[in-house]
UniProtKB/TrEMBL annotation:
<dbReference type="InterPro" id="IPR019887">
    <property type="entry name" value="Tscrpt_reg_AsnC/Lrp_C"/>
</dbReference>
<dbReference type="Pfam" id="PF01037">
    <property type="entry name" value="AsnC_trans_reg"/>
</dbReference>
<feature type="domain" description="Transcription regulator AsnC/Lrp ligand binding">
    <location>
        <begin position="6"/>
        <end position="75"/>
    </location>
</feature>
<dbReference type="InterPro" id="IPR011008">
    <property type="entry name" value="Dimeric_a/b-barrel"/>
</dbReference>
<protein>
    <submittedName>
        <fullName>Putative transcriptional regulator, AsnC family</fullName>
    </submittedName>
</protein>
Amino acid sequence: MAEAYILINCELGSEDNVIKELKAISGVSEVKGVFGVYDIIARVNASNDEDLKKAVGKIRGHHGIKSSLTMMVIEGQGT
């Protein structure tokens, strides 16, 4: 299983709409608004790296997102 966390900056005022739309993307298992440098954090799960990259690409290409930082999880570490 491949997993990643994505920290997202949105256009001002678009956070609620972006969260709603991200939840509909296949592979997105969790989306939450956060305070701080970023506006949203999303957790993405996929059966393999290729499917994970596709999901991340859909998120990064979303019209309400200004920038993002993707952190892929190291499988097996911390278990």
